[in-house]
Automatic annotation (TrEMBL):
Listed Gly residues bias regions: 86-95
Domain Carboxylesterase type B: 46-465
Organism encoding this protein: Dichotomopilus funicola
PANTHER family to which the protein is assigned, alphabetical: CARBOXYLESTERASE (PTHR11559)
Protein known as: Lipase
The keyword Zinc-finger is assigned to this record: no
Keyword Signal: yes
InterPro entries (UniProt xref): AB_hydrolase_fold, CarbesteraseB, Carboxylesterase_B_CS, Type-B_Carboxylest/Lipase
Length: 539
């Protein structure tokens, strides 16, 4: 035994001597499997210096046999010091260090420059860590871990997330310091292809986010973060993933394995409400095979990276999207769905049965926008086209059922509103509603009505940087948004009513107005749940 240990010890010394002429360059963090120095030290508008560690690997490259597999977090040892610059591949829209997972953005996406394009790479399971100056190991500051929005199809840890404005809010005296983390995850074909009976794992994009959060729980103390005070935050698809994680089962089919974070902040959770998906997932899988000119999963795993990227482009950019808002792709689209194992049913159904992570979640903030269907659904040809829109979620709905929805949602003269309100509820708001109702006494809820109250507007407030990068319609709301988020993060009182049987929440208008959930909105989500739960509607 001793000679082995001695050899190991000497080898370690030799490796250090060879790779480490300067034993501790500034900001060096030794994770055990890899050593990182900051990629850059950036300065916020008010002069806070922040060390940014880009592209820390949290899982192996999901290529070859690991394609369509849960992330492999048996991390290889990397001898050289890493500075996070361009770890192989073309980078992303945020610059050469903005590694993106394979991304495709259809032409109708309102991001000029991105729409209609495909980018990214398969070796993408990296995360970024942001550490403000003065924070050092042992400080145990709270951690904000972000899952970016993506429509489950495009984007990255750097494109849709920037915590620099929030670090400034700390500088203005709003609570103490914190560390931010943001990760990539697989999207589209690579993240959400699944079919029963095939030798692959379901919802791997979601499991990537879980693995990244587990990384934070395990390693963040090296940077000065407190693994007992992690708030996971996400918007849109990122929030949808968090929503699904609240019901994630472990390999034994139980909820006994705690989530790797204690609090969640969910904004506009885009979570598809599709329960009985086995046959549609098979149809989508078969279409993926056809499009790839192959007949088997092995054929898909054998595709070169270039062909795999082209396949994703074909599925998302060149085919009509039938997801119905929130996610993209044909048939039911690519996104989280019941997979017969770790996600046994949709969250609303599991929450109703009490199969939700009650014990390990200490606090939640759940938000949605009053009119987020406005920019995320088609409103053409209403009300005649409404049946088709409703049947994206309820494929077997009868005409009587469609009429039941119209009776509640449609006011003649407000044709577009019909499509917007339905999409707002089915894709986003009712998910927030269901989770708040399922965790009474723990959740805090907001509905943001500040015009234009469309999807993603709230992000601009809590991550406000300046009027150019984050143009907000009501600058007075920035301070309360950031103050409340920081208080929540630090486990302090965010001055926010807790959602309970009285359904108290904030209606954010030109201020944070404490009110109760209007009966009309409760009735809408009750109807959505009733229809989604009724097997006759085929959800
Ligand atoms: C940090 O600075 C680098 C170099 O100037 C820049 O490329 C990057 O976008 C900055 N990151 C943030 C989050 O501001
Ligand atoms: C997509 O991008 C093109 C050119 O970049 C632009 O002309 C078009 O308006 C964009 N589409 C949308 C829906 O924003
Ligand atoms: C499948 O074959 C078609 C027609 O030959 C070709 O255009 C397409 O690029 C192929 N797709 C892949 C993913 O190889
Ligand atoms: C609904 O009504 C239309 C005619 O108004 C009819 O063509 C269609 O078959 C009906 N659909 C169902 C599912 O009953
Ligand atoms: C929020 O306030 C606006 C403006 O007063 C009102 O129109 C809307 O119905 C309110 N929403 C909620 C959820 O209370
Ligand atoms: C699920 O869908 C299949 C067809 O895809 C159908 O045959 C079956 O009856 C449905 N099961 C339930 C419980 O609705
Ligand atoms: C919808 O109804 C059709 C015809 O009754 C049936 O074949 C199909 O399996 C149903 N789909 C679902 C998802 O229940």
């Amino acid at each position: 035994m001793l000679p082995i240990l001695l050899t190991l010890f000497l080898t370690t010394l030799a490796v250090q001597a060879r790779c480490d002429p300067d034993p501790s360059p500034p900001g060096l963090i030794d994770l055990g499997y890899a050593r990182h120095i900051p990629t850059s030290i950036n300065t916020t508008a008010s002069g806070v210096r922040v060390a940014i560690y880009n592209n820390i690997r949290f899982a192996r490259s999901p290529t070859g046999d690991l394609r369509f597999r849960a992330p492999n977090t048996d991390l290889p040892h990397v001898p050289d010091i890493q500075d996070g610059t361009n770890p192989g591949g073309p980078g992303g829209p945020g610059g050469p260090n903005d590694v993106s997972c394979i991304s495709s953005a259809p032409w109708y996406i309102p991001f000029p420059g991105l729409n209609g394009t495909t980018w990214g790479q398969e070796d993408c399971l990296f995360l970024d860590v942001y550490v403000p100056e003065g924070v050092k190991p042992g400080d145990d500051v709270p951690v904000l871990h972000n899952f970016h929005g993506s429509a489950y199809a495009f984007g990255s840890k750097g494109t849709f997330f920037d915590p620099m404005g929030l670090f400034d809010a700390v500088g203005k005296g709003n609570g103490g310091k914190f560390i931010a983390v943001a990760n990539n995850y697989r999207m589209g074909v690579s993240g959400f292809t699944w079919a029963q009976g095939e030798d692959l794992d379901g919802n791997v994009g979601l499991l990537d986010c879980l693995a990244a959060a587990e990384w934070t729980s395990k390693y963040i103390y090296h940077f000065g973060g407190d693994p007992q005070r992690i708030t996971a935050i996400g918007q849109s698809a990122g929030a949808g993933i968090l929503y699904y994680l609240t019901v994630l089962h472990d390999a034994h089919g139980t909820l006994d394995t705690p989530l790797p974070f204690q609090q969640i902040f969910i904004s506009s959770p885009a979570g598809p409400q599709r329960r009985n998906v086995t046959s549609r997932q098979r149809q989508l899988f078969d279409l993926v095979l056809d499009t790839a000119n192959t007949t088997s999963l092995a054929g898909l795993r054998a595709l070169s990276e270039t062909d795999f990227i082209a396949l994703n482009d074909a599925m998302i950019n060149q085919m009509p999207s039938e997801g119905g808002g929130g996610n993209l792709g044909p048939i039911l689209g690519f996104g989280p769905a019941p997979d017969g194992s770790r996600i046994p049913d949709i969250p609303s159904a599991l929450i109703q049965r009490g199969a939700v992570h009650h014990h390990d979640l200490k606090g939640l903030i759940l938000g949605s926008m009053a009119s987020e269907g406005q920019t995320t659904s088609s409103d053409e040809g209403m009300p005649d086209a409404f049946g088709a829109l409703a049947r994206r979620t309820l494929p077997n709905a009868s005409n009587e059922t469609v009429q039941e929805v119209l009776d509640l949602y449609y006011t003649p003269g407000l044709e577009s509103q019909l499509a917007w309100d339905w999409t707002t509820d089915v894709v986003f708001a009712c998910n927030a509603f269901n989770l708040a109702r399922g965790l009474p006494g723990k959740a805090r809820r907001y509905i943001m009505s500040t015009p234009p109250a469309t999807h993603g507007e709230d992000l601009l407030y809590y991550f406000y940087v300046d009027d150019e990068q984050t143009p907000v319609s009501d600058p007075q709301l920035v301070e309360p948004f950031q103050t409340k988020l920081l208080a929540f993060l630090h486990g302090e009182d965010p001055q926010w009513p807790v959602y309970g049987d009285d359904e108290r929440l904030f209606n954010i208008t030109d201020s944070f107005e404490a009110t109760t959930l209007p009966d009309s909105l409760r009735a809408r989500c009750d109807l959505v749940n009733k229809l989604v739960f009724d097997p006759a509607n085929g959800a």
